[in-house]
Write a structure and sequence with these properties.
Elements (H helix, E strand, L loop, with lengths): L11 H11 L4 H8 L3 H15 L4 H10 L5
Helix pairs in contact: 1-3, 2-3
Length: 71
Amino acid sequence: MYTIEINEQFTDREFEIINLLAEGNSAKEIASELFVTLDTVKTHRKNILRKTEARNTTALVVRCLRTGLIQ
């Protein structure tokens, strides 16, 4: 079903953000926790969505769960 190797294409920060998104954190909450700006989180999320070809954050989290990237 998923033809891309998603385990190998994320930076450490992107992995952090994916996990925080999967926990239900908002972009604002993630920015506060990681001590970065909201725009930085939005840029990371946009890049993650592009890399996974996911339509939105929910689809991203589902895809990461199904491929075993996160638990």
